[in-house]
Protein 1
Amino acid sequence: KQEVTQIPAALSVPEGENLVLNCSFTDSAIYNLQWFRQDPGKGLTSLLLIQSSQREQTSGRLNASLDKSSGRSTLYIAASQPGDSATYLCAVRPGQAGTALIFGKGTTLSVSS
Amino acid sequence: GAVVSQHPSWVICKSGTSVKIECRSLDFQATTMFWYRQFPKQSLMLMATSNEGSKATYEQGVEKDKFLINHASLTLSTLTVTSAHPEDSSFYICSAVGIEKPYGYTFGSGTRLTVV
């Protein structure tokens, strides 16, 4: 059974710092991996999606990497800002088509000004 | 592209009544829709998977008679919480996926249900 773990559970940093969020999964047979952002009481916003054949994806100050063989992904946030404060969720899609995403419990990030 | 609209965004209902939540894919045909429930400061828990025109598949421990899911068209799925009780209060989020596309699954904005 696929399990997704995110470390750390919470993180507080001052504005301007670069930071790394970690995600690990137990079964390397994934179709893709997605990083989401969730603000309190809100839905999910997709940040980056990495196909199983890809190594990384970048969008602005965000960079996500995927090491499928070791079951790991990292989300790198450069020059953090207070507006980055949110919960970041990692989710994997199992290889089978039409199956639900499996989520980690998230990392709650707080960036202070 | 790939927008999912979920309504209502919040609802308050009395115990014993039923509440319907709608999830619509606006610019693509959703062959599969998923319904999740999220408790405060917890991750998303999959409740059920629905494919257009067929019965939903419920996860273990989810009461299918309480949480009725209908996926009558390729753009609409509904979740009805029947005979709601205070313990059903939660945040419900739908997700949709269409014909194979690289952008992955798209999520609705969620519905905050409060049962009083």
Protein 2
Amino acid sequence: NAGVTQTPKFQVLKTGQSMTLQCAQDMNHNSMYWYRQDPGMGLRLIYYSASEGTTDKGEVPNGYNVSRLNKREFSLRLESAAPSQTSVYFCASLSTGPGEQYFGPGTRLTVT
Amino acid sequence: AQSVTQLGSHVSVSEGALVLLRCNYSSSVPPYLFWYVQYPNQGLQLLLKYTSAATLVKGINDFEAEFKKSETSFHLTKPSAHMSDAAEYFCAVSLSGGSYIPTFGRGTSLIVHP
């Protein structure tokens, strides 16, 4: 099992460009999440998907969109990147009940 | 509503010394509590979790945490620090009986001196 995979690992964008961050899990988990991590801020939830076909906003959804393509895949799209979106982005998945989340290795995004 | 406070953004210890990382939570219903560790340039991985069974929870690498309801705390300890323990540690809480949307603390960076 690969667990949770994310692509790309690194990305540099210019202000106004768009891109999609990809996330996939092979653990048959129902719930998937997108977080951003900034120094001193911990992890902040951008969007989550409790099950295939549903998505909901988290704490910091502005400037982002998501797609739960199927049970395995959950993508995060930046339509018009801004320097404030420079961050490390993590995808996570969770099975059911009070279990732990499984995290991907992260995507380090820089917007200039 | 739920929230987590980690006291101290940085904790510095000597190798072999006791590690104590503090976490206090706020929750309107019985919580589930987690400690995660993040090594440099990696994702988070679970150290241990409390899900209403034993209040003293043992995790990987000799870490343990005790759930104290009266103090709303879930502090992480390790008897003897190792250089390889240097990392960022996150406490998280989620609520029982609902959708599992964990709330994370801001993290504590553990520095281990030789």
